[in-house]
Specification:
- This protein has a five-stranded mixed β-sheet with strand order 4-6-7-9-8. A two-stranded antiparallel sheet has the order 1-2. Strands 3-5 form a two-stranded antiparallel sheet.
- The protein is of the alpha+beta class.
- It has three domains: 9-212, no CATH class; 215-279; 291-465, Histidine kinase-like ATPase, C-terminal domain (Heat Shock Protein 90, 2-Layer Sandwich).
- Helix 9 packs across helix 10 (332-348).
- The protein has helices at residues 9-25, 30-54, 61-81, 90-110, 123-132, 135-154, 171-250, 256-279, 294-302, 332-348, 418-428; strands spanning 28-29, 87-88, 291-293, 311-316, 327-329, 352-359, 363-370, 432-437, 443-450.
- The radius of gyration is 34 Å and the shape is elongated.
Length: 466
């Protein structure tokens, strides 16, 4: 059970193109950056006018207003060139944010360099990049901000100040200001990038969960439709068989017509047998409205993954032997969730998987153990997050930059979504999922519910369909 992915290949094929398309298209709209630039333009103009006319400080007003006007002109040109809903690529967004950094650097160069209190505004463009762009473009913008900050800390015009006074800071203090700017840009950028990356991975994982659950619900509905069709078609097929039998009796035995009637009757009988096989095995058990003994449900799920070299044992361990086995709802969440966990254990077990159901007056618990290598140490603390896998061909953390893994789809490499989907589905039923490594080797995944949660008198709520 070293990996955390068992999702089916069709679902991977649906999730991956979406994630890749998002990475190519970009995650920020032009209108967003334009609105932020308009806000910066108004703020810069107000600050310049207040300092020059309100406080009476001397500064190169014309040059400063020219920098601000250039930003306004850029916004107007972009508004004429692109529609408001235009989405920027990573490269375009990096270029526009780099311009904002350089424009701010030009203003600060004219008004005192890093001594100017507004020098902290360098943080804003880099944080925006960290929260919307990939890691490479964020690093590029961070390096640009670091370079211009270092430049204007050494070369800059004097800080606007009353002519009769001199404001000079000691070099050690200026070094401290530069250090705080660099550390502030770095810390806030890394923090914003990590939060945005986690949010993007979680959103993609939840989308995959919804796809898996929708697939399970469609299969359940298809099974119910097959049962209904079997019952509805049984009567007309029976009539066809009776009529064919009567025709066979009145026709000469050696005639070609009698041979055709015998063929028709045999094919009608064959159709009836096929429909009976469709209806009987699942009759009364299809969909989330049927109830099964807990061990029977687990055995039904595990049967798919049994093999000649793998033994999957289903065991019951009630706290009181006289207490009857719980009757649980056959919900898609349980089928798909336990299916992922058992399949994952079967993939990495050496020879044996043990599935144990235990219950008492207040709790119901299902434990899946295998005798494999166990969870990899570098992912055990992050089990249950999307794109966390140790299957061959993937990094332990799975995701690359702001998106899911992009390794070739195929074989049993996985995307690191299987355990995340299983955990999400089982938690939607009210269960609590825990995963640990066993001291003697192997892994254990346990899921526990309060009594009445999945074995109550009413079916499980289907809130995820809303």
């Amino acid at each position: 059970m070293a990996s955390t992915d068992t999702e089916a290949q069709p679902m991977r094929a649906r999730v991956m193109p979406v994630a890749r398309a998002s990475a190519v298209r970009g995650r920020v709209r032009l209108r967003t950056l334009s609105n932020l630039r308009w806000m910066a333009t108004v703020g810069q103009t107000t600050a310049l006018l207040v300092v020059y006319f309100g406080l009476g400080y001397s500064l190169p007003l014309v040059q400063c207003l020219a920098c601000v006007a250039f930003s306004a002109g850029l916004n107007i040109a972009l508004a004429l060139r692109y529609p408001p809903s235009h989405r920027l690529t990573n490269r375009e967004a990096t270029v526009y944010l780099a311009y904002d950094v350089l424009q701010l650097a030009a203003l600060l160069y004219l008004t005192g360099g890093i001594v100017n209190p507004f020098a902290w505004m360098f943080v804003a463009p880099v944080v925006i990049a960290a929260s919307t762009l990939n890691l490479g473009n964020t690093l590029i913008l961070g390096c640009i901000a670091l370079a211009v900050t270092s430049f204007i800390s050494v070369i800059h015009q004097p800080l606007p100040w009353p002519a009769r006074e001199h404001f000079v800071l000691p070099p050690l203090y200026l070094a401290g200001v530069w250090t705080s700017l660099v550390l502030g840009i770095g810390f806030t950028s890394v923090y914003a990038w990590r939060i945005a990356s986690e949010g993007a991975r979680m959103s993609a994982g939840l989308a995959a969960t919804q796809l898996a659950l929708a697939r399970e619900q469609r299969l359940s509905a298809l099974g119910a439709l097959a049962t209904a069709a079997a019952h509805e078609l049984g009567s007309p097929l029976g009539t066809i068989a009776v009529v064919a039998h009567e025709l066979e009796r009145v026709l000469p035995a050696a005639s070609q017509e009698a041979e055709d009637v015998r063929l028709l009757r045999s094919q009608a009988e064959r159709c009836r047998m096929i429909l009976m096989r469709l209806a009987r095995p699942e009759e009364g058990m299809l969909g989330a409205t049927a109830r099964l003994p807990l061990c029977a449900l687990l055995d039904d799920i595990a049967d798919t993954y049994r093999g000649e070299d793998l033994d999957i044992v289903i065991a019951a361990a009630p706290s009181n032997r006289e207490e009857p086995q719980p009757q649980v709802w056959r919900a898609p969440e349980l089928l798909h969730g336990f299916g992922n966990i058992i399949e994952n254990a079967a993939d990495f077990a050496n020879s044996r998987v043990r599935v144990e159901a235990s219950w008492g007056p207040s709790t119901l618990c299902v434990t899946v153990e295998d005798d494999g290598p166990g969870f990899s140490p570098d992912i055990i603390e992050r089990i249950g997050e999307p794109y966390i896998t140790s299957r061959p061909g993937h990094h332990a953390l799975g995701a690359t930059e702001m998106g899911p893994p992009t390794a070739p789809i195929g074989r049993r490499e996985g995307m690191g979504l299987g355990f995340f989907i299983a955990k999400t589905l089982l938690e939607q039923t009210g269960g609590m999922v825990k995963a640990v490594n066993l001291p003697e080797g192997g892994a254990r995944v346990s899921v526990s519910w309060p009594r009445g949660q999945i074995d109550g008198e009413t079916p499980l709520p289907r809130a995820q369909e809303d």
